Amino acid sequence: MTLKSVWGSGGPWWITLDDYAIQPDGSVSLPTEDTLPAGSSTTMTFWNTYTVNADTITEEGWKALSTCDPKDPSKGLTTAVDVADSGAGIEAGTYSTCTIVTRAKN
Terminus-to-terminus CA distance in the chain, angstroms? Predict the structure, then answer.
C-alpha cells in the first residue's frame, strides 16, 4: 500500500493545503508553531487515500487486512498520529487508529 494523499478539517487557521504534503518517509508533519487561544481546543479529522496493488496481496494478507487491532500493525491499516507536547497541558503521545481494508469485487 502506498499513501497517495492526505487532507484534513477542523485544524487551526494556519494549517493550509500545502502543509498536507507527504514527506519522502511517508509522513505528514503539520505545523504547530502557533498556539490556540487559552481555553480553546480543536478536533481534527483526516482523510487518507492509498493505492493498493491487489495482485501482490495473498489471501492471508486480505484476511489480515479485513480485521483491525490498532496495537497490531499486521492487522488492518494502522495509522499512528504523534502529538507533540504543547506545553499547555496536552501530553505528547502516539495515538493509533485502524481501518479495515476490503477487496473490491469484480
Answer: 20
